[in-house]
Amino acid sequence: MEVELKEMLEDLEALKRTLSDPSHHDSIAKLQQHVERISDLAKSVPSRRSKVQDMSAEVVDSNPYSRLMALQRMGIVENYERIREFSVAIVGIGGVGSVAAEMLTRCGIGRLLLYDYDKVELANMNRLFFRPEQSGMTKTDAAVQTLSDINPDVVLESYTLNITTVKGFETFMESLRNQNFRPRNGDGGVDLVLSCVDNYEARMVVNQACNELNQIWMESGVSEDAVSGHIQLLVPGETACFACVPPLIVASGVDERTLKRDGVCAASLPTTMGVVAGLLVQNTLKFLLKFGQVSPYLGYNALKDYFPTMEMKPNLQCSNAACLERQKEYILTKPARDAAAAKAKMEMEASSATEIPIHADNEWNISVDDSYDIEKTDLTSSSDALPEGLTRELPSADEFQILPVPEETSTSIDDLEELRRQLEALNAD
Predict the structure, then answer these.
(1) What is the value of pTM for the model shown?
(2) Annotated catalytic residue: which of 107, 241, 265, 323?
(3) How many CB atoms lie within 10 A of CB 429?
(4) Which residues constitute the signal peptide according to the record (predicted)?
(5) Which CATH topology does 86-251+265-340 take?
(6) What is the tens place of the pLDDT at every residue in 151-163?
């Protein structure tokens, strides 16, 4: 744009010189001032970085992936570049979902699908991610605007819709099936769905969609008092779905919508939401890149800094028909899956049993030399022996001091008789 504006200024200057009528010079001067002002504004706008074709581990200031690729060099992740192959859907771009989207964008995820129907408000400014100038924009549009500036390499798809409506649910299902980004086996077009919604109805919709598509997903939430939260991994058929173990208030038959009162809102802390979003994305990275242990359930209590964990098995009498169908499939495929797991374990044990060198090459050129044999020496001889004629004033610590044993005193019969006579004499007195 700067080049075009510079060319426009040169054309105006040339036009000004060719015009013989001086009355037109003032108009041309005004146009030149406007173009110069636009040029100054264009220079003040921050420039977006260009796309990076391939991830590199080169440690330079201009490489946005050098610190991420260091995970591969340090042996934490086998192949970090694979992150560009994955698609993640985030439902709910609020206090948790927006921060999770930013974290995944900075990590270089391949594709992000964003779902929300709400707009950015000034009441959202106590949270992270959104900015005051984005007030009035839809959350999905505002998120795309920010995330595309942070990392233009990420493919962003936004859906401004309510998934709890019939039309919204159909669009939601269709978008999850879309495999245009990377073809894969099965019906799903995404690798993971992250639920970051704030109500039970929306969670049940995500639960239904993932059960029907046999789609692995993670659920997250923050309490109304803003001092606790949780994340949960849900694998259809293998773990409990959201209908298997409903919240107590829902299981009691209370309508969630009746709990909200006018003029009363839930508390919200950016700290708690940031912690929950961090735990959620950390679990996502471990799941996608196959490192560490993926938590089936992880809670967070900010008041006591307590992180409870647990595992929840599916309910055999779950009210969700799709969940029951996934449970049957999981039971049928369990023998083959167990056999594959046992084979992988044996291969891992065999590879770990392979003899490795005593030491590996290192940048300090430190090596271990095992060619030197230590000569056996007489333990009785000591290298700290004193020259002839000198003696130690204190005993050696290695020598056992034998104390003199006093002679035993034997008591004869005569002594006993004498003692008896003395006692009798005393009694007689």
Answers:
(1) 0.71
(2) 265
(3) 4
(4) none
(5) Rossmann fold (3.40.50)
(6) 999 999 999 999 9
